[in-house]
Amino acid sequence: MEPALPGSGLLELHQPPPKRPRFGEPQKFLPIIFVVVTICFLFCSYINYHIRYLLQLDKGVNERVDESMRFRGTVELVIFLYLTTLLLICYLRSILAHPGEIPDGDPQWEYLPQDGQASDWMPMSLQEMKKTGERRHCKWCGKYKPDRCHHCRVCKACILKMDHHCPWIYNCVGFANYKWFFLLLLYAVLDCHLIVWSMAESVKRCVDEPETRFVTMFMTFFTETLSLFLAVLTTLFFGFHIWLMMKAMTTIEFCEKSLPKKDGEARSYDSSVYNLGFFGNIRVVLGDDVLLWFFPISAPSGDGLNFMSDETRLAKDMESGKGVRRRTHQKTQRVPRRHFGEEQRLGYGSTYSGLGYGDPIRPS
User: How far is CA 227 from each of CA 53, 72, 216, 235, 314, rounded to the nearest angstrom?
Assistant: First the structure.
């Protein structure tokens, strides 16, 4: 019988749980079915009880056709089909695209390496730390957490740059699918407002013409009411996410800042260490190519693991000696733990020019 290796019991205890299939719970498709049914209803009702009337498809060959009305109906139909197509593409991509997770087999993020000892190696760009100054780790996944990463108990995984879990897409909204979710909200807002404002003409017609059939009147009013309700909800939610984008925050980070503060800390929504400025924050969400910002292609650059750059407020604050996120973020960059003699031998004596800060790196 072979002797057990040192630390093998500890390794077995901290082995990450086996991965579960992403769509292994059929009951969670119910919200998606509800959304699809709602989209289909609004689509069919708008076409049948508004566009069909404008195009005057019920008129005979010898009947006079109002060309201006038909032209208006054609324009509204083309715009509606365009927006609905983009909405469906973004909705599908939001569901199918994985939001991003911590890579497997990477010693940089493994909580316990093969020798059974906790890793002393720490990425230079890591900012979010525990109150004790140690790296954050997930007790369920058995991995160190990158910045802005959180564990989703619904998806049973750590999600990179997690924004929130959305039951309407049966998926988390994170680094790799946030653009698709953001555009989904945009096209939902545009689609609902198009129905509300253009179909107001059909609503007025039903009121002005008492001979209108009850089914036509009911469907027209119900479609207008439902689209108005959805337009208000999606507009508010989309406006909130625009504000988050401008502040370089996720929903989770916003909620963290909203919690009651201790030690006299002031609540501030303008202190995100990931702020890149107006255009920089937009590029982080919509991608680097401005011409492709509003199309469901060209995902933002990056890997979702590192968010440090010379443009962030963190770099500026470090250069001026300011403390940043005192309670949950480290104030100075950290290096792999080595003995002082080894650091002198490797030349870690004064500065690390790769970061461009000029701050001395002290041996830990």
Answer: 19, 20, 16, 12, 43
Bridge partners for 128 per DSSP: 329
Listed in sequence order, the residues at least 6 apart from 305 whose beta carbon sits closer than 8 Å to its beta carbon are: 102, 103, 109, 146, 147, 160
What are the pLDDT digits (tens) for 254-283? 998 877 666 556 566 776 888 999 999 999
Of the candidates 47, 91, 54, 50, which has an alpha carbon nearest to the alpha carbon of residue 69? 54
Q: For the whole model, what pTM was predicted?
A: 0.78
| CB-based burial, 102-123: b 16+ in 10 Å, e otherwise | beeeeeebbbbeeeeeebeebb
pLDDT band with cut points at 50, 70 and 90 for residue 119: low
Tell me how far apart the alpha carbons of residues 114 and 348 are, in angstroms, rounded to a whole number: 28
Q: Hey, which residues are catalytic here?
A: 166
Question: Is the distance from CB of 352 to CB of 124 less than 8 angstroms?
Answer: yes
Where do the domains of the chain lie? 11-258
